[in-house]
Design a protein that fits this description.
Shape: globular
Largest sheet: 6 strands, mixed
CATH architecture of the largest domain: 3-Layer(bba) Sandwich
Bound molecules: flavin-adenine dinucleotide
Radius of gyration: 21 Å
Number of strands: 25
Strand content: 25-35%
CATH topology of the largest domain: FAD/NAD(P)-binding domain
Distance between the termini: 52 Å
Number of domains: 2
Oligomer: single chain
Length: 387
Amino acid sequence: MHVVVLGGGYAGLVTTRRLERRLPSDVRLTLVNESPDHVLKHELHRVIRRPAMANAIRLSLPAVTDRARIHVATVESLDRAGRIVECSTGPIEYDYCVCCLGTATDYHGMASVRDRAVPLASSADALAIRSGYREALESAGSVRLVVGGAGLSGVQVAGELAALARAWDASDRTTVTLLERASTVAPGFPPRFAAAIREALDASGVRVEPETTVVGADDGAVETADGRSVPFDQLVWTGGIRGTDAQRGTRPTVGPALQLDRFTFGCGDAVRVEDATGDRVPASAQSARQTARTAAENVDRLVRHDRSSTAPPAAVDLDEFEWAAPGWAVSVGDDAVAIVGSRVVTGRPARIAKAAAGARHLAAVGAGRTAFELARTELASGPADCP
Ligand SMILES: Cc1cc2nc3c(=O)[nH]c(=O)nc-3n(C[C@H](O)[C@H](O)[C@H](O)COP(=O)(O)OP(=O)(O)OC[C@H]3O[C@@H](n4cnc5c(N)ncnc54)[C@H](O)[C@@H]3O)c2cc1C
């Protein structure tokens, strides 16, 4: 039997590690990822200000897995009817597959924005944002940085750019503007959390423009739906996610058992999840980790059923995912905002909550030392970090 996990992000790595422990030892397990590394995507914005963090947020997949074969390749498509994964290295057949390919940046069909903006999907993107800002500072008297989209990534990017401006002693020559279509930053998150993020952004000097829908861009300005033109020297786009090309841009919906079909599961941001209570689960690192546990459990149950029983598939009792909304924590430069229990906190307690979220994930995937380093770096601050 062959179980294949696609994608080595939060969902894929947690799924793989669970299956390593649970599956019978003679079941083959393969993890396909486009690079040999697991990247803590939820910390990518930090690399803009602290390039050295690119290493702190990257783990070698072979170092944090055990019996799984790590297959480095790009998934090109998934033939569910034939149970075949088409990869850049050739086809891979499977008995069970868990699709955890995450997402790609969504420009909502705006080629003019795609061609002019830098997204934030990798450390290379973060370094490009940093160098673009530095070059703009060197060639112009003042620099206008515009970030499109104020979700979790956009608010943290804007906060990081404002902090970098301070670190480079360029605040008086830099404006950071954050555009958001919804009426608040962090739309979809608890209103008190969103309001506290807005306050932290205001305090850091970020200009927030809610209810501003981007409809296009030319070389020097973003066009908005209400006919305005917002000039930029550098444009960063964090305005949406879509399925990867391997999933033809879609994020199919799965129910609480996380099945795309009898033999194929989807978890993490690669799919839209409706949990056992009918709630829509937000795309996030936290939900990716949680859904992975259910997917691994269900694959294990089906594998054991298929090997040991002649009962029809309908007899298998599958686990149902129920989203346990955790606390949330985001950084805004050297400040942070977190929901701890029922309270919204800022300042050091929030920074600790933010550092702990990443460190907990690293510790859980067996990277205790990196967890310690990440927490130490996260809690450090000041110009010395931003040469
Ligand atoms: C700047 C930023 C800040 C964020 N902050 C937060 C936060 O504070 N809290 C929070 O909960 N979430 C946050 N998020 C969102 C969070 O990072 C995502 O929700 C999370 O990464 C989803 O996990 P995943 O495993 O589904 O996908 P990913 O982590 O994206 O993993 C997908 C994996 O699949 C691989 N892959 C993709 N396509 C292919 C292919 N075709 N072939 C082979 N491999 C492929 C990728 O290389 C990657 O390893 C943030 C995101 C960003 C960008």
